[in-house]
């Protein structure tokens, strides 16, 4: 299952469109690609707890989150909502 949504990254006075793609398939791990910092990597736990709060569950299969473009550093917790929407 592949889902796709968009977010935004702010660099000074510039804003860049970020594409967030989530693919759930066979396997058991959670992977995040696209140059995320540690706060973005921790979004797995924040998204999981918020989904549980609303009665949904994280898939217990291999989940790959791609934050494109890969040449921009993604920082902060602004990507939690788009990732949760894709889940």
Topology:
Layout: E1 2-11, E2 14-25, E3 30-33, H1 38-41, H2 43-53, E4 62-68, H3 80-86
Parallel strand pairs: 3-4
Antiparallel strand pairs: 1-2, 2-4
Helix pairs in contact: 2-3
3D architecture notes:
The structure is a single chain. By secondary structure, this protein is an alpha+beta fold. It has a single domain (2-86), classed as 2-Layer Sandwich (Ribosomal Protein S5, domain 2), CATH 3.30.230. The chain has helices spanning 38-41, 43-53, 80-86; strands at 2-11, 14-25, 30-33, 62-68. It has a 4-stranded mixed β-sheet, with helices on one face. A hairpin with a 2-residue loop joins β1 and β2. α2 packs across α3.
Defining key terms:
four-stranded mixed β-sheet; 38% strand; 3 helices; 87 residues; Ribosomal Protein S5, domain 2; alpha+beta
N-to-C span = 10 Å
CATH topology: Ribosomal Protein S5, domain 2
For the biggest β-sheet, the strand order reads 1-2-4-3
User: Which second-level CATH architecture applies?
Assistant: 2-Layer Sandwich
Mass-distribution shape: globular
User: On the 0-100 scale, what is the average pLDDT?
Assistant: 92
Query: What series of H and E elements makes up the topology?
Result: EEEHHEH
**How many domains make up the coordinates?**
1
Please indicate the percent range of residues in DSSP E strands (runs of 2 or more): 35-45%
Low-confidence stretches: none
Fraction of residues in H or I helices? 25-40%
The CATH C-level name is Alpha Beta
Question: How would you sum up the major sheet?
Answer: 4 strands, mixed
* Counted beta strands: 4
The count of helical stretches stands at 3
Structural class: alpha+beta
Our Rg estimate from Cα atoms comes to 13 Å
